[in-house]
Amino acid sequence: MKQGKEIEHPESRFFAVLLAAAKLPGVRIHRESYLRSALARHCSEDEIRRAIEETPAAAGITVELLDKVAKDSIRYETAKVSALSAAAGIPGILALPATVPADLAQYVGHMLRISQKLAYLYSWPDLFSGEGDDVDDATVGVLTLFFGVMFGTQSANVAVGKVAGMMSKQVAKKLPQKALTKGVIYPLVKKSAAYLGVQMTKQSFAKGVSKAIPVVGAVVSGGLTFATYLPMAKRLKKHLAGLPLADPSHQVMDGEVVDGEVVEDDESFASVHAEQHGADTDTDTAAVKPEDARS
Length: 295
Known about the structure:
Layout: H1 2-8, H2 10-22, H3 31-39, H4 45-53, H5 63-83, H6 102-121, H7 137-150, H8 154-168, H9 177-181, H10 186-199, H11 205-212, H12 226-241, H13 269-280
Helix pairs in contact: 2-6, 2-10, 2-13, 3-4, 5-6, 5-12, 6-12, 7-8, 7-10, 7-12
């Protein structure tokens, strides 16, 4: 019965896993520290300052240079994944809700780390700027789409492009809250979450990862392997690097926040947060520590 319920609401399962993984220590990347460290060997202090205060694209940093930095970060994260193949690799893993398997949370945690790094390099805003463990709905939405891109889903590719297009028209880059949570992008977020949720059942997740990454003999068991993580990270890098948002020549001089048209839906992220909060009431995770400013 429980298994059937998970399959019936796969998007809810995915959101629960995502929110749980986002609370694990070391998963959230401190945007300013990361950009300062990653760009230090390639850019002037003025360029770095502007990249942090605005975006790397606004600082005039070319996509070609960012690609080199991104490759370094992917190499670093891939090595870290390979070294931490056991579920105990991430501190606080035992504090997870009982409904979230430890190996699954570890998998998602590593995906979150590289997703943030690539997003910040290619001019996306801070995804975890708020205080505390909470994750706002727009961040949940965009991370879901990033994961969809990593798994090769076309709808996620389209949606990420639309979100980037909305933000490219702004001076102060902000995630389009309405579009991601109740607007034109939201149905695509739900579609991606449903697909990912199905892959995240205990029986099919490993098979789903292997299927998404066409590597002969790739085996996914307790953790990530080099053969699966690296291609997924490269897939997201390629997509984000190709968007106008990352291109210095597409910067705007002025503009306002663009929020997508609202569409009717009987479910929103608010209900997901409420369910997750209820599940976590008696289970505290360790405080999230910012990234240690390495590549």
